[in-house]
Protein backbone atom coordinates (compact mmCIF):
# COMPACT_ATOMS: atom_id res chain seq x y z
CA UNK A 1 0.00 0.00 0.00
CA UNK A 2 1.09 3.59 -0.58
CA UNK A 3 1.60 6.07 2.25
CA UNK A 4 -0.56 8.80 0.68
CA UNK A 5 -1.70 9.81 -2.79
CA UNK A 6 0.14 13.14 -2.95
CA UNK A 7 3.45 11.52 -2.08
CA UNK A 8 2.75 8.70 -4.56
CA UNK A 9 2.14 11.11 -7.43
CA UNK A 10 5.11 13.31 -6.56
CA UNK A 11 7.40 10.28 -6.34
CA UNK A 12 6.15 9.04 -9.71
CA UNK A 13 6.70 12.51 -11.21
CA UNK A 14 10.30 12.61 -9.97
CA UNK A 15 11.12 9.06 -11.11
CA UNK A 16 9.75 9.78 -14.58
CA UNK A 17 11.55 13.13 -14.79
CA UNK A 18 15.02 11.63 -14.27
CA UNK A 19 14.17 8.44 -16.23
CA UNK A 20 14.61 6.20 -13.22
CA UNK A 21 11.39 4.77 -14.62
CA UNK A 22 11.07 4.44 -18.38
CA UNK A 23 7.81 3.60 -20.14
CA UNK A 24 8.11 2.09 -23.62
CA UNK A 25 4.87 0.23 -24.44
CA UNK A 26 5.78 0.26 -28.14
CA UNK A 27 9.38 -0.93 -27.62
CA UNK A 28 9.33 -3.33 -24.64
CA UNK A 29 12.33 -4.05 -22.45
CA UNK A 30 13.75 -7.52 -21.80
CA UNK A 31 13.88 -8.28 -18.09
CA UNK A 32 16.48 -10.66 -16.64
CA UNK A 33 13.60 -12.99 -15.74
CA UNK A 34 12.82 -13.40 -19.44
CA UNK A 35 9.68 -11.26 -19.29
CA UNK A 36 8.93 -8.64 -21.90
CA UNK A 37 7.99 -5.40 -20.20
CA UNK A 38 6.80 -1.92 -21.25
CA UNK A 39 8.39 -0.49 -18.11
CA UNK A 40 11.90 -0.47 -16.68
CA UNK A 41 12.73 0.85 -13.22
CA UNK A 42 16.21 1.65 -11.89
CA UNK A 43 15.86 3.61 -8.66
CA UNK A 44 19.62 3.76 -8.16
CA UNK A 45 19.55 6.74 -10.52
CA UNK A 46 17.86 8.76 -7.76
CA UNK A 47 21.12 8.75 -5.81
CA UNK A 48 22.66 11.07 -8.40
CA UNK A 49 20.04 13.78 -7.80
CA UNK A 50 20.41 15.43 -4.41
CA UNK A 51 16.90 16.91 -4.16
CA UNK A 52 15.24 13.64 -5.18
CA UNK A 53 17.52 11.58 -2.96
CA UNK A 54 16.59 13.80 -0.02
CA UNK A 55 12.88 13.58 -0.86
CA UNK A 56 13.03 9.78 -0.81
CA UNK A 57 15.10 9.67 2.38
CA UNK A 58 12.80 12.05 4.23
CA UNK A 59 9.57 10.39 3.14
CA UNK A 60 10.68 6.81 3.77
CA UNK A 61 11.78 7.94 7.24
CA UNK A 62 8.42 9.65 7.76
CA UNK A 63 6.57 6.43 6.90
CA UNK A 64 8.63 4.46 9.38
CA UNK A 65 8.20 6.92 12.25
CA UNK A 66 4.48 7.56 11.72
CA UNK A 67 3.48 3.94 11.15
CA UNK A 68 5.95 1.96 13.25
CA UNK A 69 7.91 4.27 15.54
CA UNK A 70 11.68 4.35 15.90
CA UNK A 71 13.25 0.99 14.98
CA UNK A 72 16.42 -0.38 16.51
CA UNK A 73 17.98 -1.08 13.11
CA UNK A 74 17.41 -0.35 9.42
CA UNK A 75 18.21 -3.21 7.03
CA UNK A 76 18.79 -2.64 3.31
CA UNK A 77 18.33 -5.38 0.75
CA UNK A 78 21.46 -5.84 -1.37
CA UNK A 79 22.36 -4.36 -3.62
CA UNK A 80 19.80 -1.85 -4.84
CA UNK A 81 18.61 -0.69 -1.43
CA UNK A 82 21.93 -0.44 0.38
CA UNK A 83 22.54 3.24 -0.34
CA UNK A 84 19.00 4.45 0.30
CA UNK A 85 18.89 2.27 3.42
CA UNK A 86 22.01 3.98 4.77
CA UNK A 87 20.42 7.39 4.13
CA UNK A 88 17.26 6.39 5.99
CA UNK A 89 19.26 4.98 8.90
CA UNK A 90 21.24 8.24 9.06
CA UNK A 91 18.03 10.28 9.03
CA UNK A 92 16.62 8.22 11.91
CA UNK A 93 19.90 8.03 13.80
CA UNK A 94 19.93 4.24 14.04
CA UNK A 95 22.36 1.49 13.01
CA UNK A 96 22.35 0.03 9.50
CA UNK A 97 22.87 -3.50 8.20
CA UNK A 98 22.32 -5.09 4.82
CA UNK A 99 21.21 -8.50 3.65
CA UNK A 100 22.71 -10.43 0.74
CA UNK A 101 20.60 -12.75 -1.44
CA UNK A 102 22.57 -15.66 0.04
CA UNK A 103 25.53 -16.20 2.36
CA UNK A 104 28.99 -15.48 0.98
CA UNK A 105 30.94 -18.54 -0.12
CA UNK A 106 34.14 -17.34 1.56
CA UNK A 107 35.41 -15.52 4.65
CA UNK A 108 32.86 -15.47 7.47
CA UNK A 109 30.15 -16.59 4.99
CA UNK A 110 27.79 -13.86 6.16
CA UNK A 111 24.43 -13.20 4.62
CA UNK A 112 23.78 -10.28 6.95
CA UNK A 113 26.51 -7.63 7.03
CA UNK A 114 26.79 -5.43 10.11
CA UNK A 115 25.92 -5.94 13.77
CA UNK A 116 22.48 -7.34 14.60
CA UNK A 117 21.47 -8.37 18.10
CA UNK A 118 18.78 -10.97 18.65
CA UNK A 119 15.39 -9.42 19.44
CA UNK A 120 16.07 -6.06 17.83
CA UNK A 121 13.24 -4.34 15.94
CA UNK A 122 14.15 -4.02 12.26
CA UNK A 123 12.54 -2.15 9.38
CA UNK A 124 13.64 -3.39 5.97
CA UNK A 125 14.22 -0.87 3.16
CA UNK A 126 13.81 -1.86 -0.51
CA UNK A 127 14.11 0.16 -3.69
CA UNK A 128 11.68 -1.83 -5.84
CA UNK A 129 9.08 -4.56 -5.29
CA UNK A 130 8.23 -6.92 -8.14
CA UNK A 131 7.19 -10.41 -7.01
CA UNK A 132 8.54 -9.79 -3.52
CA UNK A 133 10.56 -13.01 -3.40
CA UNK A 134 14.01 -11.46 -2.98
CA UNK A 135 12.67 -8.93 -0.47
CA UNK A 136 11.03 -11.63 1.64
CA UNK A 137 14.15 -13.78 1.37
CA UNK A 138 15.94 -10.96 3.22
CA UNK A 139 13.16 -10.88 5.81
CA UNK A 140 13.54 -14.62 6.40
CA UNK A 141 17.30 -14.27 6.84
CA UNK A 142 16.77 -11.53 9.42
CA UNK A 143 14.21 -13.59 11.33
CA UNK A 144 16.52 -16.59 11.35
CA UNK A 145 19.17 -14.34 12.88
CA UNK A 146 16.75 -13.46 15.69
CA UNK A 147 15.50 -10.08 14.46
CA UNK A 148 11.94 -8.89 14.90
CA UNK A 149 11.03 -7.57 11.45
CA UNK A 150 8.25 -5.05 12.01
CA UNK A 151 7.73 -3.80 8.44
CA UNK A 152 9.17 -3.12 5.02
CA UNK A 153 9.21 0.19 3.14
CA UNK A 154 10.09 0.70 -0.51
CA UNK A 155 10.28 3.40 -3.16
CA UNK A 156 8.13 1.71 -5.80
CA UNK A 157 5.85 -1.31 -6.18
CA UNK A 158 4.56 -2.82 -9.44
CA UNK A 159 1.48 -4.08 -7.61
CA UNK A 160 1.58 -7.64 -8.93
CA UNK A 161 -1.06 -9.91 -7.37
CA UNK A 162 1.62 -12.51 -6.63
CA UNK A 163 3.53 -9.92 -4.57
CA UNK A 164 0.41 -9.02 -2.60
CA UNK A 165 -0.12 -12.71 -1.79
CA UNK A 166 3.52 -13.26 -0.90
CA UNK A 167 3.56 -10.39 1.61
CA UNK A 168 0.21 -11.40 3.10
CA UNK A 169 1.37 -14.99 3.57
CA UNK A 170 4.62 -13.80 5.15
CA UNK A 171 2.70 -11.41 7.47
CA UNK A 172 4.95 -8.52 6.47
CA UNK A 173 3.43 -5.04 6.18
CA UNK A 174 4.67 -3.23 3.07
CA UNK A 175 4.32 0.51 2.50
CA UNK A 176 5.67 2.25 -0.59
CA UNK A 177 6.17 5.82 -1.71
CA UNK A 178 4.52 5.11 -5.06
CA UNK A 179 3.12 2.28 -7.17
CA UNK A 180 2.17 1.33 -10.71
CA UNK A 181 -1.37 2.72 -10.49
CA UNK A 182 -0.21 6.19 -9.48
CA UNK A 183 2.66 6.05 -11.95
CA UNK A 184 0.25 5.55 -14.86
CA UNK A 185 -2.01 8.31 -13.57
CA UNK A 186 0.91 10.73 -13.34
CA UNK A 187 2.40 9.65 -16.68
CA UNK A 188 -0.91 10.29 -18.44
CA UNK A 189 -1.40 13.69 -16.80
CA UNK A 190 2.10 14.85 -17.74
CA UNK A 191 2.07 13.38 -21.28
CA UNK A 192 4.75 10.77 -20.71
CA UNK A 193 2.25 8.37 -22.30
CA UNK A 194 -0.74 8.79 -24.58
CA UNK A 195 -4.24 7.46 -23.92
CA UNK A 196 -3.81 4.76 -26.54
CA UNK A 197 -0.77 3.40 -24.67
CA UNK A 198 -2.55 3.23 -21.32
CA UNK A 199 -4.41 0.00 -22.09
CA UNK A 200 -1.17 -1.72 -23.11
CA UNK A 201 0.45 -0.76 -19.83
CA UNK A 202 -2.56 -1.94 -17.81
CA UNK A 203 -2.75 -5.24 -19.70
CA UNK A 204 0.91 -6.00 -19.02
CA UNK A 205 0.48 -5.90 -15.26
CA UNK A 206 -2.45 -8.32 -15.39
CA UNK A 207 -0.22 -11.11 -16.72
CA UNK A 208 3.37 -9.90 -17.10
CA UNK A 209 4.84 -13.38 -17.60
CA UNK A 210 2.78 -13.98 -20.73
CA UNK A 211 2.51 -10.47 -22.08
CA UNK A 212 3.78 -9.88 -25.63
CA UNK A 213 5.06 -13.41 -26.12
CA UNK A 214 5.64 -14.36 -29.75
Number of strands: 10
Please bin the fraction of helical residues.
40-55%
Tell me which oligomeric state these chains represent: single chain
Rg: 17 Å
Structural class of the secondary structure composition? alpha/beta
Mean pLDDT: 93
Task: Give the CATH architecture of one domain.
Answer: 3-Layer(aba) Sandwich
Return the CATH topology of one domain.
Rossmann fold
**Low-confidence spans:** none
Number of helices: 7
Strand order within the widest beta sheet = 7-6-5-8-9-10
Shape annotation: globular
Give the CATH class of one domain.
Alpha Beta
Largest sheet: 6 strands, mixed
Classify the beta-strand content into a percent band. Answer: 15-25%
Distance from first to last alpha carbon: 34 Å
Following the backbone from N to C, one meets helices and strands in this order, namely: HEEEEHEHEEEHEHEHH
Textual characterization of the structure:
By secondary structure, the protein is an alpha/beta fold. It has a domain at 5-18 and 50-180: 3-Layer(aba) Sandwich (Rossmann fold). 41% of the residues lie in helices and 21% in strands. The chain has seven helices and ten strands. A six-stranded mixed sheet has the order 7-6-5-8-9-10, with helices on both faces. Strands 1-4 form a two-stranded antiparallel sheet. Strand 5 (73-77), helix 3 (82-92) and strand 6 form a beta-alpha-beta unit. Helix 1 (5-17) packs across helix 6 (180-189) and helix 2 (50-68) crosses helix 3 (82-92).
